[in-house]
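[step 3/7] inverse_fold.run input=structure_tokens len=155
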């Protein structure tokens, strides 16, 4: 598993369910700014797939704003990654091909494993203004990612 900047992710799929993380992936934490390239990518992916913003934010106002801004559905927030129950929120038929894109191994990667999805680790977007507990979660996740990357050479 390597990390790829969001703008460089190539998806040649059709009819898939793409669960896209927001904080640290589409935008920096608690931010709304998105590059034009990422916007174009979203519309390209959305033309042939079902793209859902999959965020663990507790802030319902932010969730609604993100949905409006990107014109994409979001998960409800009732369940949080890595809970498998998130999948129960999607209107059937749920595509058999599911792709999770996110910046955290421990949240997005583990979520993908639990629901049998493919995982693409995006290179984390940081603003430098992250809250302390977000920074701590990033450090922890980076450590896990380093250990995983080191060990996978021996597997
Ligand atoms: Mg994230």
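[step 3/7] decode complete -> sequence:
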């Amino acid at each position: 598993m390597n990390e790829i900047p969001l703008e460089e992710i190539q998806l040649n799929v059709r009819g898939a369910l793409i669960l896209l993380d927001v904080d640290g992936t589409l935008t920096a934490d608690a931010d709304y700014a998105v590059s034009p390239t990422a916007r174009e990518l979203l519309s390209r992916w959305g033309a042939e797939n079902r793209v859902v913003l999959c965020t663990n934010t507790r802030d319902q106002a932010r969730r609604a704003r993100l949905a409006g801004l990107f014109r994409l559905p979001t998960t409800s927030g009732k369940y949080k990654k890595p809970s498998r129950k998130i999948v129960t929120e999607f209107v059937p038929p749920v595509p058999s091909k599911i792709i999770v894109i996110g910046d955290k191994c421990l949240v997005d990667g583990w979520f993908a494993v639990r629901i049998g999805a493919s995982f693409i680790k995006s290179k984390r977007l940081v603003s430098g203004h992250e809250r302390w507990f977000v920074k701590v979660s990033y450090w922890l996740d980076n450590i896990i990612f380093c250990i995983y990357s080191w060990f996978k050479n021996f597997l």
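[step 4/7] annotate
The first helix runs from residue 36 to 48.
The helical segments are 36-48, 60-70, 105-115, 132-152.
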